[in-house]
Design goal:
The protein has 321 residues and is an alpha+beta fold. Helices cover 26% and strands 26% of the residues.
Length: 321
């Protein structure tokens, strides 16, 4: 079947774009720090380089301007003449003095003298401004690098979901796994059914969200994710799939969004992984192949069979039927 537009991609990216914000776009500037963190890496690096480059050039120009107005650029800096900054004769030397001061290098060749009150004021302003810029930009880069988004890359979902019987009940199932040895603390899984519907009053809801019960009442949604687990949604009278049969599945149009949340054990930060299954990725009458085997003193997980399924006898009728 031709692949249709998804609400959530298989990699978890949401296909939603906000447009025609009008005056509401100013809200992004009111939370500028979060806006900067949410930007792509190339824009973050560009802003990082431009901010430091512009700030350095402006501050170096101010030091050069003081030396120019005092006439230090054309005077011999000896015992008979005390300049504002020793050994600053042109813009490159003023720029080097600023960098030495900002980076606290202090080679000792260029230094500020006590007979320059305007230079002392500029020095204090430079120290305060440098601290603010460093705290803002370096803090932004640190938070962006420490975001747990990449941890979600090592959380796997099966490529397809299956419908078959388990414990004499018709169930919708899919598989999740963790590729790392570090655990996800307090891992919890949720499922949303995205489907268009029309209310009895005639209102059309294009992307109506309905909760799929994956063990909320029994605690089965709280996962101990040290090995691949098969998540099960029991299709009963309370399920949105109560009237779904093998035949009607071919004509249905829906999307199941799976959300796995947990705390990264190594960093203590909350991580979220997402995926989705459309109706053509739900296999009726299939079951997942086992991936666990007992070796000499440990359990082995064979991830080559993680997505594999096989057919099992399953009634083609809906639970209602």
């Amino acid at each position: 079947r031709r692949e249709r537009q998804r609400f959530v991609d298989k990699n978890g990216r949401c296909n939603v774009q906000h447009g025609n914000l009008g005056g509401e776009s100013s809200r992004y500037l009111s939370d500028f720090f979060t806006t900067l963190v949410d930007l792509k890496w190339r824009w973050n690096l560009l802003i990082f380089l431009l901010t430091y480059t512009v700030a350095w050039l402006v501050m170096a120009s101010m030091w050069w301007g003081i030396a120019y107005l005092r006439g230090d650029l054309h005077q011999a800096h000896g015992d008979s003449y005390s300049p504002c900054v020793a050994n600053v004769y042109n813009f490159p030397s003023a720029f080097l003095f600023f960098v030495e001061t900002e980076a606290t290098i202090g080679y000792g060749h260029r230094y500020i003298t006590e007979r320059c009150p305007e230079g002392i004021v500029l020095f204090l302003f430079q120290s305060l401004l440098g601290s603010v810029v460093d705290a803002f930009l370096i803090g932004c880069m640190f938070i962006k690098m420490s975001q747990p988004k990449k941890r979600a890359e090592t959380l796997m979902f099966s490529r397809a979901a299956v419908i078959s019987q388990r414990d004499a009940k018709l169930c919708l199932m899919f598989r999740v796994g963790n590729l790392r040895n570090s655990h996800m603390v307090s891992a919890q899984i949720r499922c949303k059914l995205i489907k268009s519907r029309q209310t009895p009053e005639g209102e059309f809801l294009p992307l109506d969200q309905c909760e799929l019960d994956v063990g909320f009442g029994t605690g089965a949604d709280q996962l101990f994710l040290v090995s691949p687990l098969t998540i099960c949604h029991e299709i009963n009278s309370e399920s949105p799939f109560f009237c779904l049969s093998q035949r009607s599945l071919r004509s249905e149009q829906f999307e199941i969004v799976v959300i796995l949340e947990g705390i990264v054990e190594t960093t203590g930060m909350t991580c979220q992984a997402r995926t989705s299954y459309t109706e053509d990725e739900v296999l009726w009458g299939h079951r997942f192949l086992p991936v666990m085997s007992l070796e000499d003193g440990f359990f082995r997980v064979d991830y080559s069979q993680f997505h594999a399924t096989f057919e099992v006898p399953t009634p083609p009728y809906s639970v209602k039927e």
